[in-house]
Amino acid sequence: MAAILKRPSLARKAEEVETLASFIDTYNVLVLASLYKVRSMQLQELSRKFRGDVQMKVVKNTILCRALEASKKKGVKALAEAITGSNVLLLTNMNPFRLSLLLDRNKIKMSAKVGDIAPDDIVIAAGNTGLPPGPAISELSEAGIRTRIESGSVYVLQDTVVAKKGDRLQAKVASVLSKLGVKPLEVGLSVVAAFDGSLVLKAYDLHIDLEEIRKKLKSAFDSALGFSMNVGFPTPENVKFILQRAQAGAQSLVIVAGYVSSETVGSLLSKGYSDMVSLSRMVAKVNKAAAPPEF
Predict the structure, then answer these.
(1) DSSP-derived pairing of the beta strands 108-110 and 190-196
(2) Euclidean distance between the first and final Cα of the chain, in Å?
(3) Are residues 217 and 283 in the same domain?
(4) Which residues are bridge partners to 196 per DSSP?
(5) pTM score of the predicted model
(6) Are 9 and 74 contacting, i.e. CB atoms less than 8 angstroms apart?
(7) Are 88 and 33 in contact (CB under 8 A)?
């Protein structure tokens, strides 16, 4: 009798595995993202934003592992090694690096609770807290924050690190952060691993520091531009600068040679006047009476 009762649930699980495996075979990219601290409302908002580009599937780990096993994709089974905790499976044809960036940009700031891990150093900035004198002074002091009273408000004397990256937040620190309205946690879908083609990428593989990349690209461009100009190799990017440099060099040469033209006459007169003034000053040092008057 028990076996008969179990059959419907087994059939449903088998159907769920088959459907998910079909989805996995349909899309080029699979991304496993952690649901740690992600609220259902936030997940719904992300689903709405990515509609048409990303399919989101929240399934049990056992179902996902079986679906990966049943998939026809070569190498996709290796993604199962990254499955731990509560996750959502994102199915897409989008570049996984782009999707990882989009997920990072859609994270939101949240208040911290006792026991949360500080994602970075948490700093309380110097200045007016907006809190009235009273119990807040002792609470801030217990968290290692020095204060003073001014115009009926509590002021923090200097920037203070109340928790370092990786620290587990204590009750007194969490309470102070809440009172000051500091939200140190960034909450959203965090990529655990991704499958693209036949390659499994871990979270650190997909992390991109855009600012650092921009700096490196700019530095590489500047170096290439300088080198191409020095060797006189014209390109659409440098031809303007090469012509400007050539013009400046030619103008300098004709001025040194004393060649008079409509383009150089002004510079030659200016140079002649400058040379005259310089010479008169030198003469004045030797014989002040023989020096011509200053103009």
Answers:
(1) unpaired
(2) 119
(3) yes
(4) 29, 199
(5) 0.62
(6) no
(7) yes
Single out the residue of 70, 118, 62 nearest to residue 87, CA to CA. Answer: 62
Say how many residues make up the chain.
295
pLDDT, one tens digit per residue, over 206-228 is: 888 888 888 999 999 989 988 88
The two three-digit tokens of residue 157, written as one number: 């004397």
**Together in a domain, 182 and 192:** no
* Type of residue at 283: V
Cα separation values, 134 from 137, 143, 147, Å: 6, 15, 12
Residue 81 is encoded by which pair of tokens?
A: 């090694």
Q: Report the alpha-carbon distance of residue 112 to residue 164 in Å, rounded.
A: 14
Q: Is 57 exposed, middle or buried (0-12, 13-18, 19+ CB in 10 A)?
A: middle
Of the residues 174, 208, 242, the one at which a domain ends: 208
For the record, the structure tokens of 252 come out as 């300098």
From residue 238, alpha-carbon distances to 135, 218, 246 in Å are 65, 15, 12
